[in-house]
Amino acid sequence: MKVILLTGASSGIGYNTAQHLVEEGYTVYGAARRTDKMPAGVKPVKLDITDEASINACIEEVMNKEGRIDVLINNAGYGSYGAIEDITIEEAKRQLEVNLFGLANLTKQVLPIMRTQKSGTIINISSMGGRVSTLFGGWYHASKYALEGFSDCLRMEVAEFGIDVVLIEPGGVKTDWGIIAADHLAESSKGGAYEKQALKTSASMKRQYSSNMLSNPNIIAKTIAKAIKSRRPKTRYLIGFGAKPIVFMKTILPDRVYDKIMRNM
Ligand code: NDP
Asked: Could you tell me the distance, in angstroms and rounded to a whole number, from the CA of residue 77 to the centre of ligand 1?
């Protein structure tokens, strides 16, 4: 059975995916900082994606035990919401460090292993936010739009080595993500010019992420499992609450009309 390394397995989409893949019989290494939060059957590995030594130690641990990595699922991430004027460049760099450069660093370490095996699948958890923008999501979208370009280029580069690259683009999924993003937004806007609008948006995000309107993370877990099983997976899976209609809306509407709708949502 395939050996899978999955980041962000301590919560939300990663947690449910790890659990689902274990149930399907895969050997799953779940990586995160909170290794005590993994579902049963997952092999926990300590990982801070922003720390190169931690990335190296994580890969070394999996390779020492299994000698191979068939699937890498790059899922760890968060939403640094806040007005661009309010977010410090230090925080913006941290957003890109977690959602893009850390992911890239881990991927770079796994590629030689997959090249030697002459096979492998890299699954990058992007977002519908890699194709559309939302109010106060500047740095989050910068990280996910970048991840889309990065993944499309990587897929072309590694095809000749038998390695495939797949993007998962979730819509709204009920996890801690929205609460963390809403807290970032409220916190970063304190006392500033955007505070009123930011607090309104933050409260609305919290309402959404506390309701049952959004998709269950299991839907994303099943899509990831489908991509792993498929002999020829799709290059991108747009899935979950709002994803298809919002991306469609962005494609057909003039930018200013789209902006107006999103500002009022
Ligand atoms: P959660 O907040 O529930 O989970 C985030 C995971 O990322 C945690 O397991 C956390 O682990 C891990 N993580 C965060 N920072 C680091 C770090 N520095 N090093 C290692 N791991 C880290 O959110 P989701 O499950 O919703 O998010 C998973 C992915 O899905 C993200 O990339 C997100 O952007 C994307 N997504 C989510 C959507 C949603 O609506 N929920 C929509 C579209 C995309 P720990 O803190 O233990 O290290």
From this structure: 4
d(CA 196, CA 173): 26
Ligand 1 neighbourhood includes 125 CB (under 6 angstroms): yes
User: With contact defined as beta carbons under 8 Å apart, do 79 and 137 qualify?
Assistant: yes
Q: What is the pLDDT of residues 149-203, one digit of tens each?
A: 999 999 999 999 999 999 999 999 999 999 999 999 999 999 999 999 999 999 9
Architecture per CATH, domain 3-81+89-174+216-264, reads as 3-Layer(aba) Sandwich (3.40)
How far is it, in rounded angstroms, from Cα 45 to Cα 190?
Answer: 37
Cβ distance 31 to 10 under 8 Å? no
Name the DSSP class of 3. E
What is the position in ligand 1's atom list of the atom closest to the CA of 241?
Answer: 40
Answer whether 0.90 is exceeded by the pTM: yes
